[in-house]
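Try this one yourself first.
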């Protein structure tokens, strides 16, 4: 089925908000070093843009978990596809996500990361769909709260497409 993409958040809006979050994190972690854990693949575009705007020392690592197939519904199954390269011991960790939807993936992931001896673990997401929450997750930094729409761009995909859009779009079928 052919789909159409409607702009929800422009590139300018997203960039401006990422700068604000970068400023906030730089203030909150003044005098400290932060360790950004990017959840692949969706979080990668957001993490790179955010990292460039953080002024305290930053280190980065990546992990990949699977919760979605080529579908738009959560399977509820979380599997580690790629684990972190580095230890979290004694680090100020910030998990960087593209979107929190049901919260299933994050809830599992945060518990697992917290068991690895970090100083603290916070969660930063570009997008949040609070209406869809099934599992309660505390989000420390949110770019935008959005309505219950399937969105793409800035790292988010529909069937592996559209990650490279520089804005956030809604997928429409008509
Ligand atoms: P959750 O476990 O249901 O919170 O799922 C989170 C993951 O589902 C995100 O990291 C995305 O990979 C994917 N996801 C949820 N909503 C969307 C969407 O609107 N567009 C693209 N991917 C989504
Ligand atoms: Mg994701």
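Now uncover the answer:
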């Amino acid at each position: 089925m052919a789909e159409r993409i409607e702009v929800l958040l422009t590139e300018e809006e997203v960039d401006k908000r990422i700068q604000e979050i970068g400023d906030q994190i730089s203030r909150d972690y003044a005098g400290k070093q932060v360790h950004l854990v990017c959840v692949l693949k969706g979080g990668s575009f957001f993490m790179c843009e955010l990292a460039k705007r953080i002024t305290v020392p930053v280190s980065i690592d990546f992990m990949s978990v699977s919760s979605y197939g080529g579908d738009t519904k959560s399977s509820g199954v979380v599997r580690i596809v790629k684990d972190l390269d580095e230890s979290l011991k004694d680090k100020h960790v910030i998990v960087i996500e593209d979107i929190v939807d049901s919260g299933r993936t994050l809830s599992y992931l945060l518990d697992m990361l917290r068991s690895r001896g970090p100083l603290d673990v916070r969660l930063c997401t570009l997008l949040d769909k609070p209406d869809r929450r099934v599992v309660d997750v505390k989000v420390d930094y949110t770019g935008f709260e959005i309505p219950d729409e399937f969105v793409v761009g800035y790292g988010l995909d529909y069937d592996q497409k559209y990650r490279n859009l520089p804005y956030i779009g809604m997928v429409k079928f008509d």
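Discussion: The first helix runs from residue 11 to 28. The first strand starts at residue 4 and ends at 9.
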